[in-house]
């Protein structure tokens, strides 16, 4: 919108419910009008001043109503715009209403802090070279995506930013996921505690079914709150890890408060960088309230602003700004939690805090940095995270939460194929033991030890005890419920595993791995339709993380070999495992032989080779490769019970003997 001077030029309105509100400074009116004309020629209705201002009516009031009515905002971003208080107010209004903002930058400008705050998640198009016509098709496409995507899409909320790569699923034997086009859907990837205890069959693309899995319906509890990622308002925009860490700690504290329902970290952070109304976020997360805020850090000083909003009315129940030293940050977090609890009339648990507490502020900063880079899910990210954590425990050897994260990183390094078992197992175990010794009431310490027991020891009962204790200490931890489901599934307790996985969904309804686990258990109990539904949901939440392979396994298990082959042909790169199974099932023995020979040339996946031989009824070779997989500690062996591909092994005495060797029930 042109700042100032619009009243005398008003000619009339262009419609009361525009698709797009155009914000601009008066010197850039020609560019704004060009953009308006281009969008309207493509069917997008625009509100632009002075054209659409009604003479005699309140000018400011019309601006507010037009912004509120618009589905998206196009900002002509220039030095003139950032110097205009009118444009800033329009951008602030749009951000407060969580409207998508598409910025068309027409010059090289340094952004002042106020604009950075409101535009840090917006989609930018660069026309600073002066070639406005060249960028118009991209602007039109970005606007159409913004206005056509529903405001709340738990199965893949809208964002105009480029998708962020999710954490890699891990090991070298994993299949390459197919890129899938989802009409009207651009999903930003994310990575939280993405430890995937499975190798070869750990990536799946959404099955082509019309239904989608969802969390069980539940009444929204009054005493419920989602903690959204805090915004980094620091001058250099280099404190995102710090802002995220504060929000995570608040989430953790509130989740441990009796009487509160607080969605897990993955679900709350799913909306990071996405322009979605708070009411829609609350609906997706099944909460009545939302806590959001910002962090501005300068040196050793930090300003934390937080506000609690009632979702159904948009009313601010409470807000506060804290200016403190970094060393007082835990006190600030406690004060915020106390105020939130007071606003919701909940009494905070006065028991000992079991979060990432340390008396050393430098160690805490290193801990937050480690958690941030860990979520990148890369070899370098893990190495960097480990470096930060080692520095943290050097500064504060009693920092139990940092020791627990060292164990988690070590497990991930091995599971990702970046380090051999010999270099990780004792380091992971030692760190988990250190965390437990320092704080036996820390849920993360028990969960880390449970991972070690599950991944390295295949000591299912001990893992079950550790993870159960983590749940007792932190009943809101969705990751712990999912890991408990992994253990139950390994033991063949599929119904119990499904119950635990569904509980994980309740705690963290937008975590794709929870739905993936539901799919895995349904697959292993021949509930193929339910498995397809859950895989689709997992894929919709994060297609980068959940790829296309599982649907091929499902088709093969159902005996639909031609459909499996058709899907394999769509994939890029060789997929010898899938092909060997599908060709054999469809009666093309020679083609299956060829695929198997190619698989044998690169024996990095011994369990996959064993699975193929078992499916072909060549049990002697299947058991030979199972023994090899056992010696290599192949993580796919945790899925051995119930896998329909292994039907031919059941009844062979060697099968029960192998299960006994793995400490699994016969």
Based on the structure given, which CATH architecture of the domain at 7-148 is correct? 3-Layer(aba) Sandwich
According to CATH, the homologous superfamily of the domain at 7-148 is Toll/interleukin-1 receptor homology (TIR) domain
CATH class of the domain at 7-148: Alpha Beta
Cα distance spanning the termini: 71 Å
In which order are the strands of the major sheet placed?
2-1-3-4-5
Average pLDDT number: 80
Please identify the structural class as seen in this structure. Answer: alpha/beta
What is the CATH topology classification name of the domain at 7-148?
Rossmann fold
Apparent shape: globular
Low-confidence stretches: 1-15, 150-196, 198-217
Counting DSSP H or I runs of 4 or more residues, the number of helices is 27
Strand content: 5-15%
Number of strands: 10
Radius of gyration, in Å, reads: 27 Å
Q: Give helix % range.
A: 40-55%
Biggest beta-sheet profile: 5 strands, parallel
List the helices and strands and how they pair.
Elements: E1 20-23, H1 29-41, E2 46-47, H2 59-69, E3 72-77, H3 79-82, H4 85-96, E4 101-105, H5 113-119, E5 123-126, H6 132-148, E6 225-227, E7 231-232, H7 240-255, H8 265-269, H9 278-285, E8 289-298, E9 301-310, E10 316-325, H10 329-343, H11 361-374, H12 379-395, H13 400-415, H14 421-438, H15 443-457, H16 460-473, H17 478-490, H18 494-507, H19 512-524, H20 528-541, H21 549-557, H22 561-570, H23 576-585, H24 589-601, H25 606-615, H26 619-631, H27 653-661
